[in-house]
Structures are given as C-alpha cells and as structure tokens.
Amino acid sequence: MRDEATGSKGEKSNVTEGMSVSEEVGQLSADTLNDYIAVRDGGLPDGVSISGITAMLESDNTLRLYYGFTGVDPDKLTFEIDGDKAVLRRRDDGMRYLAPGAGVYANHLQDVHEYSVSDGTNTYTITASVLTYAMACVRKSDEKTSDLGKALYLYNQVAAAAFGE
Q1: Which residues constitute the domain of residue 111?
Q2: ∠ CA 42-48-76 to the nearest 5 degrees?
Q3: Distant-in-sequence, close-in-space partners of 68: CB < 8 Å, separation ≥ 6
C-alpha cells in the first residue's frame, strides 16, 4: 500500500505538486489588501520589540503577535487585547506571543483587534486582523507565500458573502 503523502521510497513529497492557483488569485494585487495594513500607535517600552505577526489557520483561525524582550522582565509588563488584560503565551521554543482566546470565523477574518503592551510609562498598540497577515504575505516576493495571502483574502470574501460579516 502506498502512502500518498510520501514519495514511493518513503520520502516526503511536495504536497503542492500538481496544484494550480485559481485565476482569481492571480488577478489580485497587494493594493487590494491595503485596507488591512496594521495601525501602530505609541512607543514600545524599553527592551521590547515586535518579532512578527502570524496567522494560525487551524480549526480556530487566529492572529498571533510575537514579542521579543531584551533586558526586561515580560512579567513586569501589562498586555491587553481589545482593552482587556491578556496573558502572554509561550511556545515550546520560548517565543512569546499574544493571541485572542477564541478563534475567528472565516467571515470575520477582517475584524481588527488591538494588541497592546505597556510598562506603565510607554504603551504601544498594534491594530490588526487576520487579513493583516494576508496582506503581509501578498507583499512577499515569494510567489507561494504571496498566493497564500491572496487565497486567504478570497476565502474571507466568499465566507462573508455566504454568511454575512
């Protein structure tokens, strides 16, 4: 019996091999997603940096905002999402991030959340949505990454048309 997820010799195959990108994806440009650019406000507390933003596209879609810390104890900082206190989470590799507690439905990927960090003196807020991640992907020079962002945007548009916003 052959495992279709691997090559005939037990090697992992390219899962995108033979797949094509729809005409709709090819017609989208980065300008289409300009409305989803992250809005940044304030100044980062000393020793805090933004490491990146990612979308977790699993059973619960969500946006993660990653932070970096140099010479500052993250436990001394205040984190909020949409004005409510939030817990800074940690991945197995030690990276720390904020993410809403509940997933985002496909027809609400455009809904923005405010992620903020404060040391009591400086407060920095990023307002972003899962489509902010899609927009960042579209701007990448790597075609597969760009197409991922475009497809994510189209997925949201179809879901919003079918189920409302």
Answers
A1: 32-163
A2: 100
A3: 48, 49, 50, 51
Amino acid at 22: S
In sequence order, the β-bridge partners of residue 127 are 39, 114
Q: Is-contact 138 34, C-beta < 8 A?
A: no
Q: Which CATH number covers residue 39?
A: 2.60.40
- The answer to whether position 75 is within a domain reads yes
> Domain total for the chain?
1
**Which tokens hold the place of 165?**
């916003």
- For residue 70, tell me if it sits in a domain: yes
How far separated are the first and last CA of the chain, in Å rounded?
45
- Which tens digits make up the pLDDT trace of 16-67? 555 566 778 878 888 999 999 999 999 999 999 999 999 998 878 899 999 9
**Collapsing DSSP states into helix, strand and coil, what is residue 97?**
strand
Does residue 24 fall inside a structural domain? no
Encoded tokens for 132: 């902010």
